[in-house]
Each structure stands twice: as structure tokens, then as C-alpha cells.
């Protein structure tokens, strides 16, 4: 509904703040069709140190609630034309809104009060409103809302919601990462989690939410690997098209956290809106009424976003907003001290869930796990341990309980060779550094010299090679270098195995390379 010209327009919405951190000032929606009453109530609210947001009817009130994520309370007149107060309460209930509501009427009755409470009102005030009674009702409503949030957070924590206490490590470098995560959880800033597949980015993202002041509220995840590019913006910001969720996940996670997985896949148009939201708190398209959901963003990626920003496939302003709290999760091969600790913890936990007592692994089984380089990281380790527990018979896991690892290592000779390799370097600052270093080292080892860039990119006729040609040559080189071990090839190239198999088909590369496809 359009604001009238009587001077009670809410005006520009101020900088976004967090209403979940209870403060002395709250944004209170004042809904009354009577202009004089609306001004009077707004003045009383302002006198109590709060900010009054006036609305002249039920339709305008619902529109403001949908667009303004910082509202803490609503004062609602019951008797209004078109959509009255009871209809507004019904609409809030249908949409699952948790905004506390105090209803007002100049003609109170027990039946009306009872009906309003049944439909979600937390208090009832008779007109004309007594300032002292209004102050008490507002203070009580805000205090109850804050207490309810605290109790909900404790309920989630006691019920096993993940927090950083679940992210364990004995490796010194990883323990420093965990300390960094603790600071990120407390900051309230957007967080960027970088790391290879299987390093636990999704688990860590949920742990950050569970450790933060938003614990107990919504924690939603948007996996961009499962959505077509043309649908990503609607999934994030909502759509008015038929059959679509008008809210989007950014609005649905209001008050909590939205995890955006594989953020690098987001199209440029959606990147622009997300960058604007992170900068201003406004999620609405340009030219439309502001929409300010209060949602924390945690983004994950397998690729270094700085490189993508330099290439132009990621907006620089989005990178700068996300990179306020970057955290790199090192791969498991770069923290070998965690391999056995994680395996033993997982074995004991899975065994306990099945009613068994497992005392760990035999020495030979430990050697087997240490001989594997874990391209799938923690996720791969946990899969192998789960299978081992399922087929094991004794109190300790043996090498025979890890048949897939035995096949991969191809006997004790390969294991001994792996164990005699030089210590791996410490974790790089970003993921691309590890991938590029691996490729460069491989080429120098194979030829004795660094690769000639002119030979690589320019053909005999002087023309520049296509990207497809270069990519095909690199895949063939990696296959030769790693003797057809697809896990190692995929990890070196920085892609998933399914993507690698697709490229083998696209480029007509012999499928006989797939030595570890089983």
C-alpha cells in the first residue's frame, strides 16, 4: 500500500544491524489505519527509545514484514478496513513468521482477546493506550523473545547440533586453523572456506553456525553443484514466477546462516546482487523496495577465488566481501598426524553405534592407512573406516578389513615406496598453489627442465593452440605421470573424478587408463 503524504513515512532504512543481539533500541512496526492513532503510537514508541515503523493497514504491514528483516515487534490494531488485525495474525501463522505481536483495540472483550491470543498475539492493549502499560508490554515482549532465542540455542546445542568442539585435530597446523575458525565464528562476518573436496568444508560451515550467536536458528545450505545456472539467482534471492519460492534461501535463513557451497559457480548477475547484499544488507534488485534479510553468509569453494577474480569469472567486489574471514582447510595428506586419530575415533564411534567395542587398529592396518595419500581427504577416510567396521570381526581393524586400500597400493612394495617418500610440504595458503606446484614439479622431474611455454602454446605452423588442445595434452600428461590412477590425476588437475571421466570421453582418450576405476 502506498504511503500517504502525512509525514509518517518510515523514510530510508538505516544500516543493517543484528536484532538477535538484544539492544536498547528495537525496530517496532506500528499498524493502525487511523492516522492520528498511528502518529500517537509512533511517538510513544520513539519516546521509549525504539524506532517506530508506521503502516496504515494490514496489507502494508505484511509487505514490510516480508521486506524488512530487522523488525523486532509489531503493535497491531485489530479493527481496520480490508485486511484487519485478525487476518494479519492468520497470515503470519500461515507463513511461519515468528514476529511477536501486541494487539490493540478500542472495544476490548474477552472473546476478542482470547481469539487474538489463539492466533498468536502475545499481549493485548486497550485504546487509548496508557504509556506506562505500553512500555511494560514492549519490554516484556522483547525480553521473552530474547529468552526464547537463548533457550532454542541451548536446546540445539544440547541436542547435538554441530559446533567447533566436533572439529578435532592433533596436527599443529590444523589446530591453528581451528583457532582461526573460533575467531570467525564469533565475528559475525561472512566467512570463506577454501579446500579440496572431502576436507570437511560443509561440516566446518555448520560448526561455525553452531558456535556463533545464531546457533539454534536456521542454518540452510545452497549447493550450486545441484542447480542449473539459470535457476541459481532465484534459489538464492527468490522469484515471483509461478511455482517458485518467492522468498529464496537468503530470506528463508533470516536470523541464521546460509551456506553457499561452490560459490564460484554463481553466475555474474547473481554475484552482483550478493555483493550488494553483503555491502548494504539490501537483497532487492536495483530500483525495487529494499529487502533486508538478516542472514550470515558462509561460502565454500574448491578453487582459489582470487584467481577467478583476476580472470573475470568472479566479481572482484564479491571476492573482497567474502574474503574478510578466509580460512583454508588443508588436505589430509598435509596433516598426516590426523589420519590415525580420525580413523580410530571414527571406528570407536561407529562400533558403539552398532553395539560393538572396537579398540582401534592393528599396527599393520595403521601402516596401510599411512601409506595412502587420501585424495578424497577426510570424507574418503571415513568411508573406508565405515566399510572396515562393517566387515570386521575382531576388536581391532586389520588390513584385510580395508580391501580397497590393499588393491590401490598393489601390495607391500608399493606401500614401502610410499612410506619412503620425502616429507610433504606444509599446507599452502590457498588451494591453487598446491595444484600448480604439483604439476610444475611433475614436469621438471620428467624432463629435467622447466616446461617451455612457447612450445606448449604455439603449434608448428605458428598458430596458438586451443584451450581444448592444451587441456587434452595436460590430461594425457597427468595420466602418464600417475600411471592411470584416476584419483591422483583428478587431484593434480583440481577436478572431480566424474569430471575427469567426462573429459576422457569428450577428448576420446583411451579408457584403459582407468587403473583405479573399480
From TrEMBL:
Domain Sigma-54 factor interaction: start-end pairs: 167-390
Response regulatory domain ranges (all copies): 27-142
A Gene Ontology cellular-component term: cytoplasm
Positions carrying 4-aspartylphosphate: 77
Entry keywords, A to Z: Activator, ATP-binding, Cytoplasm, DNA-binding, Nitrogen fixation, Nucleotide-binding, Phosphoprotein, Repressor, Transcription, Transcription regulation, Two-component regulatory system
One Pfam family recorded for the sequence: Response_reg
Stored SMART domains: AAA, REC
Compartments where located: Cytoplasm
Broad class of the protein's primary localization: cytoplasm
Molecular function per GO: ATP binding; sequence-specific DNA binding
UniProt cross-references to Gene3D superfamilies, sorted A to Z: 1.10.8.60, 3.40.50.2300, Homeodomain-like (1.10.10.60), P-loop containing nucleotide triphosphate hydrolases (3.40.50.300)
Swiss-Prot/TrEMBL GO biological process terms: phosphorelay signal transduction system; regulation of DNA-templated transcription
PANTHER family: DNA-BINDING TRANSCRIPTIONAL REGULATOR NTRC (PTHR32071:SF95), TRANSCRIPTIONAL REGULATORY PROTEIN (PTHR32071)
Function text: Member of the two-component regulatory system NtrB/NtrC, which controls expression of the nitrogen-regulated (ntr) genes in response to nitrogen limitation. Phosphorylated NtrC binds directly to DNA and stimulates the formation of open promoter-sigma54-RNA polymerase complexes.
Name of the featured protein: DNA-binding transcriptional regulator NtrC
Source organism phylogeny: Bacteria, Pseudomonadati, Pseudomonadota, Alphaproteobacteria, Hyphomicrobiales
Amino acid at each position: 500500500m502506498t504511503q500517504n503524504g502525512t509525514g509518517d513515512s518510515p523514510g530510508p532504512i538505516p544500516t543493517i544491524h543484528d536484532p538477535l543481539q538484544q539492544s536498547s533500541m528495537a525496530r517496532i512496526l506500528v499498524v493502525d489505519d487511523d492516522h492520528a492513532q498511528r502518529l500517537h503510537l509512533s511517538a510513544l514508541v520513539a519516546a521509549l527509545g525504539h524506532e517506530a515503523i508506521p503502516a496504515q493497514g494490514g496489507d502494508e504491514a505484511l509487505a514490510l514484514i516480508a521486506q524488512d528483516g530487522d523488525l523486532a515487534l509489531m503493535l497491531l490494531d485489530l479493527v481496520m478496513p480490508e485486511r484487519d488485525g485478525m487476518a494479519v495474525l492468520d497470515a503470519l501463522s500461515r507463513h511461519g513468521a515468528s514476529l511477536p505481536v501486541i494487539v490493540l483495540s478500542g472495544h476490548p472483550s474477552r472473546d476478542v482477546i482470547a481469539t487474538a491470543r489463539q492466533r498468536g498475539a502475545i499481549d493485548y492493549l486497550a485504546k487509548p493506550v496508557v504509556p506506562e502499560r505500553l512500555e511494560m508490554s514492549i519490554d516484556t515482549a522483547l525480553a521473552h523473545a530474547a529468552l526464547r532465542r537463548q533457550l532454542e540455542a541451548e536446546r540445539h546445542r544440547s541436542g547435538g547440533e554441530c559446533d567447533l568442539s566436533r572439529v578435532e585435530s592433533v596436527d599443529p597446523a590444523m589446530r591453528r586453523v581451528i583457532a582461526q575458525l573460533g575467531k570467525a565464528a564469533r565475528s559475525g562476518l561472512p566467512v570463506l572456506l577454501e579446500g579440496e573436496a572431502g576436507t570437511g568444508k560443509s561440516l566446518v560451515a555448520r560448526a561455525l553456525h553452531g558456535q556463533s550467536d545464531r546457533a539454534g536458528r536456521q542454518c540452510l545450505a545452497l549447493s550450486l553443484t545441484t542447480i542449473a545456472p539459470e535457476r541459481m539467482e532465484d534459489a538464492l534471492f527468490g522469484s515471483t514466477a509461478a511455482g517458485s519460492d518467492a522468498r529464496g534461501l537468503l530470506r528463508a535463513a533470516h536470523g541464521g546462516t546460509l551456506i553457499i557451497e561452490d560459490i564460484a559457480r554463481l553466475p555474474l548477475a547473481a554475484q552482483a546482487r550478493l555483493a550488494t547484499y553483503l555491502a548494504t544488507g539490501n537483497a532487492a534488485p536495483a530500483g525495487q523496495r529494499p529487502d533486508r534479510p538478516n542472514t550470515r553468509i558462509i561460502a565454500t569453494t574448491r578453487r582459489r577465488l582470487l584467481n577467478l577474480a583476476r580472470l573475470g569469472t568472479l566479481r572482484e567486489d564479491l571476492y573482497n566481501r567474502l574474503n574478510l574471514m578466509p580460512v583454508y582447510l588443508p588436505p589430509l595428506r598435509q596433516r598426516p598426524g590426523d589420519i590415525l586419530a580420525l580413523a580410530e575415533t571414527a571406528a570407536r564411534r561407529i562400533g558403539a553405534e552398532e553395539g560393538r567395542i572396537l579398540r582401534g587398529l592393528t599396527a599393520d592396518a595403521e601402516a596401510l592407512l599411512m601409506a595412502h595419500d587420501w585424495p578424497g581427504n577426510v570424507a574418503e577416510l571415513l568411508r573406508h573406516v565405515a566399510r572396515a567396521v562393517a566387515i570386521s570381526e575382531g576388536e581391532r581393524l586389520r588390513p584385510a578389513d580395508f580391501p580397497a586400500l590393499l588393491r590401490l597400493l598393489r601390495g607391500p612394495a608399493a606401500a614401502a615406496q610410499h612410506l619412503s617418500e620425502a616429507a610433504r610440504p606444509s599446507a599452502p595458503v590457498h588451494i591453487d598453489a598446491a595444484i600448480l606446484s604439483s604439476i610444475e614439479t611433475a614436469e621438471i622431474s620428467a624432463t629435467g627442465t622447466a616446461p617451455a611455454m612457447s612450445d606448449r602454446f604455439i603449434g608448428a605452423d605458428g598458430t596458438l593452440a586451443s584451450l581444448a588442445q592444451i587441456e587434452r595434452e595436460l590430461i594425457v600428461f597427468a595420466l602418464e605421470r600417475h600411471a592411470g590412477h584416476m584419483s591422483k590425476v583428478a587431484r593434480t588437475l583440481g577436478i572431480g573424478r566424474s569430471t575427469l571421466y567426462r573429459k576422457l570421453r569428450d577428448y576420446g582418450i583411451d579408457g584403459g587408463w582407468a587403473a583405479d576405476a573399480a
